[in-house]
Write a structure and sequence with these properties.
The protein is mainly alpha-helical and 777 residues long. The protein has a domain of 54 residues. Helix 22 runs parallel beside helix 24 and helix 39 runs antiparallel to helix 40. The two termini are 66 Å apart. It comes from Aphanomyces euteiches. InterPro entries: Ankyrin_rpt, Ankyrin_rpt-contain_sf, SecEffector_AnkRepeat. This is Ankyrin repeat-containing domain.
Length: 777
């Protein structure tokens, strides 16, 4: 039988989506995108950055194609740059073209898309973005493609006359891209720095080192041989020794020793006179290089310290520890002994060599649950055992250790042991402690057991112990809804409770407990009972308190109900209570987007009204419908905070409305707020709407520095103070750190003719310390 037209309509997904578009909220298929945030490009490996997005976005695109992109972007504005960047990363050129043609010209997006496409090695997308004149291309693009070895993109960027600096050849050399090094040498004039040969040597790229030695004049530094030695690149070390004059430092032998490169160590010892650092033996021992340790002991007998055994023990290098104990007198510290706890053989070896007894050692053994070592220390009559040892074993639930201490030691424990067991509800252990130990517990035991709902523990303590409890037992049980415990305590104990019991039971919606306390106890409650119940939406509790108690409530009852959008509660309280409310009720309803509550309170024709906090709060959370309603129906208006909070919350539609109604406050903090959110669209919008001063940009730049937002940083870096960059450079993640160091280099190059000799010396020292950022991160 053919389906009717009506049934066809009802079974149509498109029709239902159209119907759903009139509802408030987020489409079901887009709910997964709510939590997505802007990408943090902090490390060079982009796979972990895009993997979570790929897992959600790829299936969505496969199902809907481009058909729902406009709906997605209109519903969740933050998804536009995310989808665009994902398309670049995954090489979906057709998707980019669709967005460019049907949604927004990509050149209007403030993100540095050419840089990203170059980073991802997407040649066709780089060409497309250059063809549409996308402005998001910096010298970082050339650096990234040189670093990643994309020669064809290097040629495209070169043909487009895009910016480049010395870091490009440095990066290509560091990562063994000889073809790119050669291309840049013969086609560009920027050259490189000593970092090119330094990093090529560090990574063992002998061919690149030889080529740079033959074709370039920049040379290298002592870091070249130092790092080549540490990396185990013997051929590079030999070449540098035979062909370069920069030499090395004592760190060359130290690095070779630390990494276990005995052949390089002996070569440097025989052919160089820089020597090695005194801690070379310590580093070799730490990393377990026994043969190197033996060689250093034979040739550098006066080097080394207690760190050798301390770190060898920490890393479990048994043979190294044996050798050092047998042949050296440096010894070890208590730190070394404690570091070895996870390696019983080493621990015993060290303890026999130098017995150290301290409570912290016993504690560490218990924390690591090392029963074997505890027995060892006991048999050796080690000092440091105390009552807290058994307390700790019980607290950590290391029962075998607890039994051993109980059986073999005389220190016993304190009340803490039984208190902790009662708190977690472990009745068998509690019974054991009660039967075999005399320390007992305190009132905390029953108080905590009652609060956490351990009824059997409460009964056991009541029947077998005499410490009792305090009023906190019933208060805690009532607050958590443990009705059986409340009844038991009421029937069997005399400590009673306080008004907190009924207050907290009411706030938690535990009606049975509220009724029981009302009928059987005399402590009563306070206004907090009805206030809390109203705030949390427990109508049955509110009605009971209204009908049976005299304490009533305060303004906060309606304030809390309004804040949570509970209109029925608001109506009940207004109809049955006389406490009323203040302006905060409308303020909170507006702030949290409860327009229906706002309309109802407004219709009551009362005098409380609201304050400017209503519009400010609605702007903070992006409730445009509430803002429009307040603007049309209330005279209070808003303060400058409405604009500030709309920027902080990323609510562009609110900002546009504030601007259209003449309510936009252009303050000096707006650029800073936008920079902190990383919302490039809002940042650009603010730039168009106000005339920022240089000071505004500098504040924004200084604030953005701590957000690790690479795109925003690139936009703001022309306004950065180079001194502030250098101070914070050492704390940055690899990508941003390298980018900053390149900017410092560019600044040095551009200012070299204008700066005096002293300034050049200071800047050169700065670059030596910071330009050597981790290329391999």
């Amino acid at each position: 039988m053919e389906l009717s037209v009506a049934r066809n309509c009802l079974l149509s997904g498109d029709v239902f989506r159209s119907i759903a578009s009139f509802q408030r909220g987020i489409y079901l298929d887009m709910a997964l995108f709510l939590a997505m945030k802007k990408f943090a490009f902090t490390h060079y490996n982009l796979a972990p950055v895009f993997a979570p997005v790929d897992a959600v976005l790829a299936p969505w695109l496969n199902e809907y194609g481009t058909g729902r992109l406009s709906v997605l972007f209109n519903t969740l504005r933050h998804m536009r740059p995310i989808v665009v960047m994902y398309a670049i990363y995954s090489g979906r050129l057709s998707l980019l073209q669709f967005i460019h043609d049907h949604d927004i010209p990509l050149a209007q997006l403030g993100e540095f898309l050419v840089d990203l496409a170059a980073w991802c090695g997407q040649l066709d997308i780089v060409k497309f973005l250059l063809a549409i004149n996308h402005p998001g291309c910096t010298s970082h693009a050339m650096y990234l493609v040189c670093r990643n070895g994309h020669l064809e993109i290097v040629k495209v960027l070169h043909a487009a006359q895009k910016d480049c600096n010395q870091s490009a050849m440095d990066a290509a050399a560091a990562h063994n891209h000889m073809d790119i090094v050669s291309f840049l040498h013969f086609n560009r004039s920027e050259g490189c720095t000593t970092a090119a040969m330094d990093k090529a040597a560090a990574n063992g790229h002998l061919q690149v080192v030889q080529w740079l030695h033959s074709h370039r004049l920049e040379g290298c530094t002592a870091y070249a041989m130092d790092d080549a030695a540490a990396g185990g690149h013997f051929d590079v070390v030999r070449f540098l020794h035979e062909n370069r004059h920069e030499g090395c430092t004592e760190m060359a032998m130290c690095g070779a020793a630390a990494r276990g490169h005995l052949d390089i160590l002996t070569f440097l010892h025989a052919n160089r006179d820089e020597g090695c650092a005194f801690f070379a033996l310590d580093k070799a021992a730490k990393n377990g290089h026994l043969e190197v340790v033996k060689w250093l002991h034979a040739h550098k007998p006066h080097d080394g310290s207690t760190d050798a055994i301390d770190f060898a023990a920490k890393n479990g290098h048994v043979e190294v520890v044996k050798f050092l104990l047998a042949n050296r007198s440096d010894g070890f510290t208590m730190k070394g002994l404690m570091n070895s706890i996870q390696y019983p053989e080493i621990f015993k070896m060290l303890y026999k060599a130098k017995p150290m007894s301290h409570a912290c050692i016993i504690e560490s053994v218990i924390r690591e649950n090392q029963l074997e070592l505890l027995q060892f220390l006991h048999e050796r009559r080690a000092r440091g055992f105390c009552k807290h040892a058994l307390d700790l074993a019980v607290e950590l639930e290391h029962w075998e250790i607890a039994k051993y201490l109980h059986t073999n030691r005389k220190e016993g424990c304190t009340e803490i042991a039984m208190n902790k067991v009662a708190m977690v509800g472990n009745l068998p252990v509690l019974q054991f402690l009660h039967m075999y130990r005399r320390e007992g517990c305190t009132t905390f035991a029953m108080d905590a057991a009652a609060r956490n709902g351990h009824f059997e523990v409460v009964k056991f303590l009541h029947e077998n112990r005499n410490e009792g409890c305090t009023f906190m037992a019933m208060d805690g049980a009532a607050a958590r809804g443990h009705f059986d415990i409340v009844k038991f305590l009421h029937t069997n104990r005399r400590e009673g409770c306080t008004t907190m019991a009924l207050d907290l039971a009411a706030s938690g919606g535990h009606l049975e407990i509220v009724q029981f306390l009302h009928e059987h106890r005399t402590e009563g409650c306070t206004t907090n009972a009805m206030n809390g119940a109203a705030r949390n939406g427990h109508m049955d509790v509110v009605k009971f308190l209204h009908d049976h108690r005299k304490e009533g409530c305060t303004h906060d009852a309606i304030h809390g109900a309004a804040q949570n959008g509970n209109l029925d509660m608001v109506k009940f309280l207004l109809a049955n209570r006389t406490e009323g409310y203040m302006y905060k009720a409308m303020d909170r309803a507006a702030t949290y987007g409860h327009l229906h509550v706002l309309e109802y309170l407004h219709a009551q024709e009362r005098n409380e009204g609201c304050s400017s906090d209503a519009m400010d709060g609605a702007a903070m959370f992006g409730h445009l419908d509430v803002l429009k309603w307040l603007h049309a129906n209330r005279p209070e208006g808003q303060s400058y905070m409405a604009t500030v909070e709309a920027v902080s919350g990323g609510h562009l539609e609110v900002l546009e409305w504030l601007d259209a109604t003449g309510k936009l406050f252009a303050t000096s903090s707006l650029l800073t707020r936008a920079a902190l959110t990383g919302d490039m669209e809002i940042f650009q919008w603010i730039e168009r709407k106000i005339l920022p001063t240089t000071r505004d940009y500098q504040w924004a730049a200084g604030s953005d520095f701590d957000t690790e937002d690479l795109d925003m940083f690139k936009r703001l870096i022309p306004h950065f103070n180079m001194t502030s960059l250098s101070v914070k450079l050492d704390r940055r993640f690899p990508v941003l750190k390298d980018f900053i160091s390149h900017e410092l280099q560019n600044n040095a190059d551009s200012d070299v003719e204008d700066s005096d000799e002293e300034s050049n010396a200071l800047l050169s020292d700065l670059l030596r310390r910071f330009v050597v950022a981790e290329e391999g991160a």
